[in-house]
Design a protein that fits this description.
4 helices, 55% helix, rod-shaped
Length: 177
């Protein structure tokens, strides 16, 4: 019965009350959209930027590591991999023989999700394995030596940043409400 009375009051209510309810519904809709849509778009954009960076870095590292593969210089290959260490997302790297099984050189390669055998790639690839973005890059030297460079990048910073942005968005939304 009280619900019916409330509806009657709304029907007979002032224009101001109706406008207020309309504004409240609109604000709630905007807050819901902002809280759900924008953080997901942010994650997608950051993942895409990480993938572009990882593929570019992988291409450069493969080019520089090619001579070390040709001359079987493991220390030179590891030195190339150390160049990526300052990158906060860098997890590890491994230079494999062209058979995709034998590790020629590695730097924190145990942190990568390496399968037992990797097929020689025709082009660079990037794949997400949980919170690890793994780039597989063909390595070919002028002398004909071939190998596979696998580099891992963490997505934990993206996830943490997204959580923080989502919390901030939620707090701002509550203030708006």
């Amino acid at each position: 019965m009280s619900e019916t009375n409330a509806l009657r009051v709304l029907r007979r209510g002032s224009v101001g009350l109706r406008i207020l309810l309309t504004v409240i519904v609109l604000v709630v809709a905007i807050v819901a959209f902002q809280t759900l849509y924008f953080p997901e778009r942010q994650i997608a954009a950051l993942n895409n930027a990480l993938e572009v960076k990882a593929l570019s870095l992988g291409s450069l590292m493969a080019h520089v590591a090619a001579p070390s593969l040709e001359f079987d210089d493991k220390e030179a290959a590891v030195s190339v991999m150390r160049g990526a260490v300052p990158d906060v997302e860098f997890v590890g790297a491994a230079l494999l023989a062209d058979d995709g099984e034998r590790v020629v050189a590695g730097l924190a390669a145990d942190k990568l999700a390496l399968p037992k055998k990797i097929a020689f790639p025709t082009s660079p690839t990037a794949a997400l394995h949980g919170d690890l973005l793994e780039v597989t890059q063909p390595v070919v030297s002028k002398g004909g030596a071939r190998g596979i460079l696998v580099i891992g990048f963490s997505t934990e910073n993206i996830v943490a940043g997204s959580r923080e942005a989502r919390s901030t968005t939620f707090a701002i939304s509550l203030v708006i409400l």
